[in-house]
Structures are given as structure tokens and as C-alpha cells.
Amino acid sequence: MDRDLVEAAARGDRAAYVDLISARADHLFAIAQRILRDVDRAEDALQDALVIAWRDLRGLRDADRFDAWLRRLVVHVCIAQATRERRRVVNLRILPAEGPAAPDALLTVETRDQLERGYRRLPPEQRAILTLHHFVGYSSGEIAETLGIPPGTARSRLHHAHRAMRAALEADARPRVMGGRSA
Amino acid sequence: MNPDRDLDRLLDQWFADGPIEVADRVVVQAADRIEHQPQRPAWRLLRRSPMRPAITIGLAAAAVLVVAVVGYNLLPRSSSVGGPPTATPVPTVSPLPSPTAVASPAIVDPAAPGSDISAAFLGTYSEGDWSAQPTGDARYLWQLLPAGDKTCAELVLVTTSCIVINRMPTDIEQYGPAAVVGDVLYYRMIIHNFQEDPCLNKVIAWRLGVLADRLTTQQLASGCRNSLDDTGLLLRVSP
Predict the structure, then answer these.
(1) A35, B4, B218 from A125: Cα distances, Å
(2) pLDDT of the residue at A45
(3) What is the least distance, in Å, from the CA of A130 to any CA of chain B?
(4) Is the N-terminal amide bond of B99 cis, ω within 30° of 0?
(5) What is the pLDDT of residue A76?
């Protein structure tokens, strides 16, 4: 039972902790990859988050909240990493879409490109909000709890993120690849 | 068609695409890293718990007050140039109960003969197994924690020279010396009054304004009360 594993891990049982994270790693990685839009950085962020979670596990008051707690930790690590990345890289770099492109009439290559560019312009927290909403399926209340912000703020930021994404789709679809430049 | 719905569908689809499996090495590497990563004790994480602003301000004000009072009492008093000797104030922190029968506050040299004031919990437990109940000699009105309170379990040794809190065989922390006034040993404490978790209902000891450690409320000696009114109360151990 996971609760037993969480409690064992909190008592220092590393094997129990590895069991716990092994069962959750795929989902957490998928979240991290959606926020960061980069497999390598998502792996790094996930690994960091898993180590931090181990270090701070004794601070988890309710073992039943482990999943939400760990997810929140991953999201925060991703936001922090994306924020650092934004400071280093001023311009955008268009990356090829990762993973197999599903044959879907909705998502043409052009649309994907527009979404990708629009998404990368968003502040890291708004990316996390969109990921939590569209990928994890969180409501604005759950997003607020995850990010530690008021529900109204979560709703507002979700609205702004949607507006930004819509603007990206409506913008000129002409491909504009800007060179990466390190600050 | 509703453009909001369109965007929602697009984003749902876009987010659904992409990798959903992590490489095994990520978990393996994380497992390797935690082999060398100790876990933080819960009390250290507690310090980052959000507190109500009023409590925070109250604690900060009390801490400043305690630092001032104890700092004053730590001042050397060997000479009194320019006037007659004056009575040294008793280190009271309003609204704390004043220690009674305190004649001449002074810092006791822990090494001095007859100055040893100690309270000790001498416990035994198996390494890594906190189900073992510490047993020992609890003196001076101190008490061992109730059985089963694993996360709060601590062994405590208090002397005039230091306070030692031993949570795990490899996790020993020492703080000291404490101020000694008469036959009373004082550690500065700030009391957190968290209600939702009995393990968080802790006392935090302060020394010279630096967070030193916490003791559970069960470990408070008689005369110490568990309320915010007692902020700044010092651990009092009377032989």
C-alpha cells in the first residue's frame, strides 16, 4: 500500500522511496517535459525534484497527500529551472516537436509551430498553469493549491495564458527563427 | 464554433502529444543520489511553515526582547566603577512568571564544582528503528515522549554547558551554554502553537537570537506553559 511505502520512506527506507518514485516517474516526467519543452532539462528537473522530495519527505504531514506534494515539488523545480533559463537565453530557439506527431487534423505542423512559439514566450508559471490544466486536468482551484497562489490569481493567469496562446495562433504564421543568444 | 472550445481542444491535443515515459536511468540516478542524501529532520522543515503574520510579529518581538534581556544579563558585572553596587535585575520577560527566590543572577561556569545542573534522558533504541521506546531516567520533572510518537522521539540531555538533542544515532545536536540564574537553567524558547499536528506543537529554543532547537511541550519542566504568552520563556530546570 502506498501509504505504508510513504511512511517507510519517511523513516529513511530508501528502497520504499525508490518503489514510490518508480511508479510515478513517467507521469512526473511528462509534466516536467510539458512545462520545459525539453527532454534533457525535464529529466534533470525531475531528478532534482526526486532528490529534494527524499530530503524533505519528513516534512510531509499526511502520507495520503504524497502524490500532490510530489507533483507540486516537480512543478516548482521546473518553474525555477525555466526561470533561470529565461534569464540566460534572451531569444527563442525553435526546437523540433518531440515525440511522434499524432495524425490529427487539428494539429498541423504549422499549428504546432505556432503553439510552440507562443508557449515558449509565456512566463514559466503560466506554462505550468497550462500544463496542469490541459495535461493533468487540474481545475483552477487545484492549480492554485499546487502553485501556492490564490484561486483568483490562478484563474487570471490561466486566462492570460489562454489569451497569449490564442494570440500566437492568430499571429502571422510566417516562420521566424531567432538565433539563441546567451546573456 | 466557439473559439475558446477550439483553443481548449487544440491545447488538450498538443499537451497530449509528446513523450510520456521517462528513461530508466533518471530514477536510477536519483536513487544513487539519495544514497548520499540524508533526510532533513521534520523540525527543520517546520521552520519554513507559514505562520500567521501576527504570530510572526509577536515571535519576532519576543525574540528581540529575550535577546535584550539575556544579553543584558550576560554583561560582565565584576566592577561597578563610579557608584555603589546595584542589584542585578532578574531576567523576567513580561508576561512570564518571574523565577522566585533568585538572589543573585550570574552565569555559572559549567566546569565549576557544584555547578552541574543536569537533566538527562538516557535511551536505547535500535539503529534505524524508532519503534523502540527510549527508556531512561527522567529527572527534574522532565518526561519521555509517549510511546509511538516516533517522529517526535528525542533523547535530551540538558546541562549548564549545553543542551544536547539526539534524534538519531547519527544526528546529535548541541547548543549551549545556557544562562544560569541561581539554581535555574534558562534556555530561550519560542513556542509555536500549531494545532493541526501534535508533532508540530513544539517549543523552539533560541540562543542569542539564533534558532537553536525545539523541545516538545511534553518536555517542558513544571512552570513552563505552552502558550504564546510564554514566548521567550526559558527552559527552567531546577534540581
Answers:
(1) 9, 21, 43
(2) 93
(3) 8
(4) no
(5) 92
Comparing alpha-carbon positions, the chain B residue that sits nearest to A166 is: B7
Is residue A66 a contact partner of residue A20, using CB atoms and an 8 Å limit? yes
Q: What is the pLDDT of residue B58?
A: 61
Q: How far is A82 from chain B, CA to nearest CA, in Å?
A: 18
| C-beta of residue A112 within 8 angstroms of C-beta of residue A68 | no
Contact status of A134 with chain B (Cβ, < 8 Å): yes
Length of chain A counted residue by residue: 183
Cross-chain Cβ contact B196/A61 below 8 Å: yes
Cβ atoms of A88 and A183 closer than 8 Å = yes
| A104 pLDDT above the threshold of 80 | no
d(CA A64, CA B7): 35
Contact A6, A20 (CB under 8 A): yes
- Looking at per-residue confidence, does A172 or A144 come out higher? A144
Contacts with B38 from chain A: Cβ below 8 Å: 55
**A10-61 pLDDT, tens per residue?**
989 999 999 999 999 999 999 999 999 888 889 999 999 999 999 989 888 8
pTM for the whole structure: 0.51
Show residues of chain B in contact with A27, CB under 8 Å.
Answer: 20
Does A103 reach chain B within 8 Å, measured CB to CB? no
* Angstrom distance (rounded) from CA A10 to CA A54: 8
Minimal CA separation from B25 to chain A, in Å: 9
Cell for A167?
A: 494570440
Question: How many CB atoms are located within 10 Å of the residue B213 CB?
Answer: 23
pLDDT tens string B173-211: 444 444 444 433 444 333 222 222 333 223 333 222 222
> Residue A87 contacts by C-beta under 8 Å, 6 or more apart in sequence?
A183
Count contacts between A and B (CB, < 8 Å). 125
Minimal Cα–Cα distance from B238 to chain A, Å?
Answer: 34
- CB distance from B41 to chain A under 8 Å? yes
